[in-house]
Specification:
single chain, 694 residues, mainly beta, six-stranded mixed beta sheet, four-stranded antiparallel beta sheet, disordered N terminus, Cadherin, GPI-anchor, calcium, cytoplasm
Length: 694
């Protein structure tokens, strides 16, 4: 009796909740009776068997539904009323020489115990169903010690007693009864390894410890769950019947060795349900989803929706009605294959474009029944005829799939007023073998070029001429030439100056003759690298008039029209200097070679009394000025004459101001140099100048 509940098989004494059943190799359809009592009349008594191969009828008869050869299989019989419940576990063991009904088999099991080694502490594994209801604590087993000394006690240790989770099990220290204090969850802990020993009054171990295993018997308390979603599968349209799409796998936390975790799959719902409510089938054991309709029904272009949603149910207990269920949604996409070629919406297209214009002139439209998100729909256009000058290009609009025909080189009405192109369209992806491109995959485009008033064109452009600088005003440089591309129109052209930075030029508006209005200067800031640039306009008489621009590049040849000059023009020297060198002079010239160096350096009109200065050539562009003797502190002005190598040469005279300073104790003092000191020749020239001004 377990907590006031009796459960027996026929009249057998089956008070333990754990039985070993020894079966012949094949037993079927031999009933035996299970008896359960809740002591209150067994109102609404209900039996459940964990194996689909056994059944307990309402009268308590236990029936095998098929031949049984699975030795070692565990079978649970669960009896329940509104007042009480209990469970018995049956383990099938082999026995070739056993015949008869299940009742005989149970008798054999009870009268043929398994031999075991004799010992003082006798323990058997304790099996406890999970999820038991109140009351607690409840006895679940008993430890026996036939030789236990008087006054000794039982002690229970291990995980679940004095180790976490503590307090689940306890033992009556006097009787050896083992009890559980709360309900258990097999999915949390499936087995507990405990130890039993006997101890004296001082707590010393007398015998043991002996292992005691507590096995938590699984109940079907976990629904199957699908943990790997979302579940999305793809199948190509037109796939043969039986094509595997995807696999659905559910997980059940119950004991995998029992039917509590033995899953079966089925399709509960298909959306949409057309063209067939059973487009797919799922293998009940593996969970593989396969197609079951003919390839013709898997036509993406004729389906109401190329996406199907299946409600997949997983049920434990091998799919029996008593099993728990879990569901998930499988989304199946019918993928497109390129079984439709693109077709132009019409055979001929028209376009009009002004000559000289560029850009898109017409959009070619096509139809394709394939999936717009794939290369089976995306179009690729090719110009196969009528484009020898490569004036046209065609590209695909990625949003609309239209062919955008563009002019990439300006068209000339005077050369050709009409163009005819032959265009073909294909898909990015190749067509399936039984589909090909037809006549609808080509189209003709007729293009009309409109005449516009084009600007006159200078030839050549740029125009180039070479002249010497400083040629006389009014000199003719050249006559420009501009032509009107509108050869079919009779128009006149007039010329004008557009840009003349230095204001040197003039153009005849009728004949285009260009002459000078000022001297040309190669050294002008408007001239770069000896080239002067000017722009001219040619305007036709069209309505409205059109204007073209031409460039004139004038290369100016150098003339020796710039005298050289020296640098620096100021120098300092100490009055007691031992080194009488004063300064190194350099010279430069705006002209070009040969009108520049080598330069000639001289002291201009040095008189005999003033011959205290000396100038010496260093190289073609530099000379050294030095003293022949020390001078008193003063400012001296020395006229330097420098001459270039042009023909005829040009000369420039520049005063070099020399400060003779006092240099003592590493300090240079030029403040007391006094009034400027001129050479005698310079003084004489100043006197003559003053007289001339009287």
């Amino acid at each position: 009796m377990l907590n006031g509940v009796w459960m027996t098989l026929d009249s057998l004494d089956v008070s333990p909740a754990f039985l070993f059943i020894s079966l012949p190799e094949e037993i079927s359809h031999r009933p035996s009776r299970v008896t359960f009592s809740d002591c209150k009349g067994n109102d609404k008594l209900h039996y459940e068997v964990s194996s689909p191969y056994f059944r307990v009828n309402t009268d308590g008869s236990l029936v095998a539904l098929r031949n049984i050869t699975a030795v070692g299989k565990t079978l649970f019989v669960h009896a329940r009323t509104p007042h009480a419940e209990d469970m018995a576990e049956l383990v099938i063991v082999g026995g070739k020489d056993i015949q008869g009904s299940l009742q005989d088999i149970f008798k054999f099991a009870r009268t043929s115990p398994v031999p075991r080694q004799k010992r003082s502490i006798v323990v058997s594994p304790i099996l406890i169903p999970e999820n038991q209801r109140q009351p607690f604590p409840r006895d679940v087993g008993k430890v026996v010690d036939s030789d236990r000394p008087e006054g000794s006690k039982f002690r229970l240790t291990g995980k679940g007693v004095d180790q976490e989770p503590k307090g689940i099990f306890r033992i009556n220290e006097n009787t050896g009864s083992v009890s559980v204090t709360r309900n258990l969850d097999r999915e949390t802990i499936a087995t507990y390894q405990l130890f039993v020993e006997t101890i004296d009054v001082n707590g010393r171990t007398l015998e043991g410890p002996v292992p005691l295993e507590v096995i938590v018997i699984d109940q079907n308390d976990n629904r199957p769950i699908f943990r790997e979603g979302p579940y999305i599968g793809h199948v190509m349209e037109g796939s043969p019947t039986g094509t595997t799409v995807m696999r659905m796998t559910a997980f059940d936390a119950d004991d995998p060795a029992t039917d509590n975790a033995l899953l079966r799959y089925n399709i509960r719902q298909q959306t949409p349900d057309k063209p067939s409510p059973n487009m797919f089938y799922i293998d009940p054991e593996k969970g593989d989803i396969v197609t079951v309709v003919s390839p013709a029904l898997l036509d993406r272009e004729t389906l109401e929706n190329p996406k199907y949603e299946l409600i997949i149910e997983a049920q434990d207990m091998a799919g029996l009605d008593v099993g728990l269920t879990g569901t998930a949604t499988a989304t199946i996409m019918i993928d497109d294959k390129n079984d439709h070629s693109p077709k132009f919406t019409k055979k001929e297209f028209q376009a009009t474009v002004e000559e000289g214009a560029m850009g898109v002139i017409v959009n070619l439209t096509v139809e394709d029944k394939d999936d717009p998100t794939t290369g089976a729909w995306r179009a690729a256009y090719t110009i196969i005829n009528g484009n020898p000058g490569q004036s046209f290009e065609i590209h695909t609009n990625p949003q609309t799939n239209e062919g955008m025909l563009s002019v990439v080189k300006p068209l000339d009405y005077e050369i050709s007023a009409f163009h005819t192109l032959l265009i073909k369209v294909e898909n990015e992806d190749p067509l399936v073998p039984d589909v090909s491109y037809g006549s609808s995959s080509t189209a003709t485009v007729h293009i009309t070029v409109l005449d516009v008033n084009e600007s006159p064109v200078f030839y050549p452009d740029p125009m180039m001429v070479t002249k010497q600088e400083n040629i006389s005003v009014g000199s003719v440089l050249l006559t420009v030439n501009a032509t009107d591309p509108d050869s079919l129109q009779r128009q006149t052209i007039r010329y004008s100056v557009y840009k003349d930075p230095a204001g040197w030029l003039n153009i005849n508006p009728i004949n285009g003759t260009v002459d000078t209005t000022a001297l040309l200067d190669r050294e002008s800031p408007f001239v770069h690298n000896s080239v002067y640039t000017a722009l001219f306009l040619a305007t036709d008489s069209g309505n409205p008039p059109a204007t073209g621009t031409g460039t004139l590049l004038i290369t100016l040849e150098d003339v020796n029209d710039n005298a050289p000059f020296i640098y620096p023009t100021v120098a300092e020297v100490c009055d007691d200097a031992k080194n009488l060198s004063v300064v190194i002079l350099g010279a430069t010239d705006k002209d070009l070679h040969p009108n520049t160096d080598p330069f000639k350096f001289e002291i201009h009109k040095q008189t005999v009394p003033d011959k205290v200065w000396k100038i010496s050539k260093i190289n073609n562009t530099h000379a050294l000025v030095s003293l022949l003797q020390n001078l008193n502190k003063a400012n001296y002005h020395l006229p330097i004459m420098v001459t270039d190598s042009g023909k005829p040469p040009m000369t420039n005279i520049t005063d070099l101001r020399v400060q003779v300073c006092s240099c003592k104790n590493s300090k240079v003092d030029c403040n007391a140099a006094g009034a400027p000191h001129f050479s005698a020749a310079t003084a004489l020239l100043l006197s003559l100048f003053n007289l001339a001004c009287l």
